Task: structure prediction
Amino acid sequence: MEKIKIGIAGFGFMGHCHADTLKTIDEIELTAVADTNPEQLKDAPAGVKVFKSMEEMLKGADMDAVIISTPNITHLEMVEMAAKAKKAIICEKPAAMSVKEFDQMTAVTKENNVLFTVHQQRRWDTDYCIMKEVYDKNMVGDVYVIKSQLYGFNGYMHDWHVFPELGGGMLYDWGVHLIDQILNMVNAPMESLYADLKNVINENVDDYFNIMIRFKNGVTAEIELGTYYLTPKRAWFIGGNKGSAMIDGFAGEGKIVRTSHLLQNVPGKITMTAAGPTRSFGPAAPGLLVEEPLPQVNVSHRDYFLHFIRSYYQKEEIMIKPEQVRKVLCVMDAVRESAKTGKAISLEL
Ligand SMILES: NC(=O)c1ccc[n+]([C@@H]2O[C@H](COP(=O)([O-])OP(=O)(O)OC[C@H]3O[C@@H](n4cnc5c(N)ncnc54)[C@H](O)[C@@H]3O)[C@@H](O)[C@H]2O)c1
Result:
């Protein structure tokens, strides 16, 4: 198999991450990097050609594919240029600023018959893959609720991420990944969505959101992100009629909990708690709750590129499909609409 020659457009934070990952993959050769800021090119890897623009890189570099890791506002023009130059394209997320822009991208990539996918590598996150397996294999029975929570302490956005017109804010940032994970996990038609979107400490861009999506298969998913929670956590909860599964941490630490026997009635015995007497919410009787380990998975973001290579050589269908990316962008529109109006939005996507 011939090596795929790749160029990176935009050699900032993510461009450098890509270069580091590609170093570990024999089937890919990084041949070029381009950035409009010469400072960024100073530490380009040895032997890699550097260019001061995408246009120059497309003309001057030996490459089959391009990774677009420039700010969000530039993605459309970058995709158009790369498609017309007949390069396979991996575009950073969010692929586009709007559904309309994304439709322009898919049109130009189809016209030019080039492979077009988006770097939504969080489908290969350990915590997500564990929970997807729990869901896919019905490990907690029929699922009624899924919660995906991401809380941080570093509340302020930085660089271009503070400007809404450049595609800043957390919905465009982590929101894309978290919504994509849920849609890919549940994989069922959606019914409606209700969302809250706030600027807690950032003046111009969102830094908190809470999104509730009702799917037609009976699952309700809640996605909550706060950059200024001051209690960092990456948590998952899946509730089913045969148990619950929970994770706290990107490494996927957590458990499945079941009951040794499903109670048919609320026990007559009243438990006293610090908040007074209760029949339903006191501590469980010894032996009633049984814990099991979560399934193990062995995934990494490198797998995204290994999968890309197989798709490039047409050995595998691309996993991050344009129609899925479009659906996430439609959900993001509905999030903004619901947050603005304070109303639930009907979703027939
Ligand atoms: N998949 C992920 O997990 C992930 C993580 C972080 C960022 N991203 C995405 O990666 C992209 C870049 O984000 P970042 O945080 O690395 O930004 P960044 O500011 O660190 O890097 C962007 C680089 O692009 C360069 N640039 C700007 N306009 C250009 C142009 N027209 N041509 C060539 N270079 C240009 C800038 O000089 C800068 O070096 C964004 O779309 C962002 O959403 C994805």
